Amino acid sequence: MKHEQLLAFEAIVTTGTFRGAAERLNKSQSAISHTIRQLEEELELTLFSRDSYRPSLTAEGQVFFREASRVLAQMRELGATAARLRAREEPELRLAVTATLPLGHLLSVLAEIGQEFPATHLRLSTEMMGGPIARLMEGRADLAIATLDGVPVDEVETRRLTEVTIRPVACLEMAARLGPDALPMSVMQSIPQIIVAGTGGPEDNQSRDLLPGGRKWTVSDFAAKKQVILAGQGWGGLPDHLICSDILEGTLVPLVVEGFPPRRSEIFAIRRRDQAPGPVATALWSRLEDGT
């Protein structure tokens, strides 16, 4: 029994197809099929039923998968341990952070890391929508801080950090025209909803909290979104940390919109399982905790 056989077996189960496993492991589909046939012959077991379009685990395969998953997790841990033992301080640590996170939650921890590892260049990018996860999974970030929307949870480790609230707002003049009562969807559909483009590509543009059939304006970031809303050109959801002073001053007013309640989003630190962190990334991960 070989490590690559177990990896191929796991990839088929998690992706659902031999083709998906081949794409994940950068191998041909025939190579994956051959690897599994060899494993089944060695074990003298049939792991997959091939009676339908998608392979499904046999009863024996289900038991074997539970144990194989445990072994693979231990092997990844061993690999990560070995890499940490070999590693020196990273020259650069790349963080991709969702713009919905108040950076104050993170800066004190980063200050400690900077003092402890002064030779490491900390590179922090603020990303929109699916941008942090795209950067992480493409290998352009060592750590992402974001929600779990669209995250391949079987490929990452996560650690909950905090919760943020995003609420719909409009400028004082628009809110006064709309009135204090709950606003039906039919009224709001005629007013541009200001949304933010994702930084992870077109597929990562805003897909949640959109009013169906409504007018939309797309901007590049939350700063532009807030400015457009303050100018009375539309309405939209903004995180509390960006608008609390505006609400206190009365320049922005929270709205009660049918189908668009304030949304609470959990924010997590996220790192890939298949990449062994260096000493700086390990130190940062250990200091990120709920309430950071």
UniProtKB/TrEMBL annotation:
The keyword tRNA processing does not apply. The keyword Transcription applies. Keywords: DNA-binding, Plasmid, Transcription, Transcription regulation. Residues 1-58 form the HTH lysR-type domain. Pfam families: HTH_1, LysR_substrate. SUPFAM superfamilies: Periplasmic binding protein-like II, Winged helix' DNA-binding domain. InterPro entries: LysR_HTH_N (IPR000847), LysR_subst-bd (IPR005119), WH-like_DNA-bd_sf (IPR036388), WH_DNA-bd_sf (IPR036390). GO terms for molecular function: DNA-binding transcription factor activity; transcription cis-regulatory region binding. PANTHER family: HTH-TYPE TRANSCRIPTIONAL REGULATOR (PTHR30126), LYSR FAMILY TRANSCRIPTIONAL REGULATOR (PTHR30126:SF91). Belongs to the LysR transcriptional regulatory family. This is LysR family transcriptional regulator. It comes from Qingshengfaniella alkalisoli.
